């Protein structure tokens, strides 16, 4: 479920849209481009989910995703 993203201004807090997490799926050989893509997406203020960064050893993979 997407959460509403709030932005603080001098006049107060306003709702500017919804906040989403972008799931970046990639082949092992394409890890480098997944990293670059995540950096670009995060630069816009959105959150990303990338397996090598967000799933730790021993985690339940389906649950984490």
Short characterization:
32% of the residues lie in helices and 32% in strands.
Helices and strands in order:
Elements: E1 3-9, E2 12-19, E3 21-23, H1 31-43, E4 47-49, H2 51-54, H3 61-64
Parallel strand pairs: 3-4
Antiparallel strand pairs: 1-2
Low-pLDDT parts are: none
Strand content: 25-35%
* Count of separate DSSP helical elements: 3
> How can the largest sheet be summarized?
2 strands, antiparallel
- Strand element count: 4
State the helical fraction.
25-40%
The secondary-structure element order is EEEHEHH
Shape: flat
**Cα distance, first to last residue?**
14 Å
| Mean pLDDT over all positions | 80
Q: Which class of secondary structure composition applies to the elements?
A: alpha+beta
Strand order of the largest sheet: 1-2
Radius of gyration: 15 Å
Task: Give an overview of the whole structure.
This protein has 65 residues and is an alpha+beta fold. It contains 3 helices and 4 strands. The strands form 2 sheets. It has a two-stranded antiparallel ribbon. A two-stranded parallel sheet has the order 3-4. The two termini are 14 Å apart.
